[in-house]
Amino acid sequence: MTTSSQQTQPGTAASPSASPSAGTARRRRLNEIGLLAAIVLLYVVLGSTASGFLSLDNQLGMLRDAATIGIAAWGVTLVIIAGEIDISIGPAVAFSSVLVAKGATAWGLGSWGGIALTLALGLAWGALAGWLVARFTVPSFIATLGLWSVLGGLGLYLTDALPVALPDNGLFRTLGGTVLGLPTSALVMLVLFAVFAYVARYTAYGRSIYATGGNAAAARLAGINTGRVKIALFATTGLLSAITGILLAARLGSGNGGAAAGLEFDVIAAVVIGGTLLAGGRGSLLGTLLGVAFITVIANGLVLLGVDSFFQNVVRGVIIVGAVLVNVAISNRDRAVRTV
């Protein structure tokens, strides 16, 4: 194998002699340090200009918003590292909120039954998308675009575009509330971050993801079942979308087929801003965590500053395009280094 992503285990430092790998590690660290500095700067600026930004209630609200983006972003990070893309996140989260509400009420499954149904179906539709990609070489953009349309339509069809109230019980109050003073969704996000960071850095499965994205043909020659890896990855994003939908429904008190509109763009933006290459083979969960924080702080600050909601979309679009331009430039530079 000749690519730098296969010469060095993800997350480990390269030897000085392996200059491309060492350069990649340095750029990743610089990206993470730069993001951290940008977040600190945003806190300083917004803390002095946006009334209420530093208040406890606002910080807890930002943690909830970050969880809505972050939980799905962990899975999407690995999907993009593997050289694929998943754009179905928004409708998947909305449909999951509908499933858990319908299952717990109209379908008579109870709260735990509704949750179990939602998690199982999330895993199933993600695995189906991965199977289409792996078995029939359907481009992942097309497979998940189809899923985006199907799940979005089903969520609105099942509810007539109206909210479906959740049962008012201790389980959903806990899921939508706090534990030890912190939002439950934020705690779930951090626990899942630790799990995914460990898997990506220290397991053979994590290394196979990087190898698949770096050079799929070489990975197959090394004995990695790249098709199985992709199915598992998309099944994981489906499951994470279901978890996000359950937590969002608990937070709002209802399931809504129109919820989480545009969430997929925030998720992908956070992953790309965090330094994950769209071409695959390189990225880190820590970078994505910082990307999630950056996106969340920007969005919150724009609201508190009274920026028009339509113009907020303009700012978000500029940030995404800028991040992609930086991403492409780094990808081209890495490719040039490898061919020297």
TrEMBL record:
Localization (cell): Cell membrane
Transmembrane domains' residue ranges: 33-54, 66-85, 92-109, 115-134, 141-159, 179-200, 231-252, 258-278, 285-307, 313-330
InterPro entries attached to this UniProt entry: ABC_transp_permease
Keywords from the named record: Cell inner membrane, Cell membrane, Membrane, Transmembrane, Transmembrane helix, Transport
Region feature Disordered, mapped onto this chain: 1-23
Membrane topology reported for the UniProt record: Multi-pass membrane protein
Pfam families: BPD_transp_2 (PF02653)
Biased composition (Low complexity): 10-23
Domain of life: Bacteria
Main location: membrane
PANTHER family membership: ABC TRANSPORTER PERMEASE PROTEIN YPHD-RELATED (PTHR32196:SF21), ABC TRANSPORTER PERMEASE PROTEIN YPHD-RELATED-RELATED (PTHR32196)
Protein known as: Monosaccharide ABC transporter membrane protein, CUT2 family (TC 3.A.1.2.-)
Source organism of this protein record: Actinoalloteichus caeruleus DSM 43889
Phylogenetic classification of the source organism: Bacteria, Bacillati, Actinomycetota, Actinomycetes, Pseudonocardiales
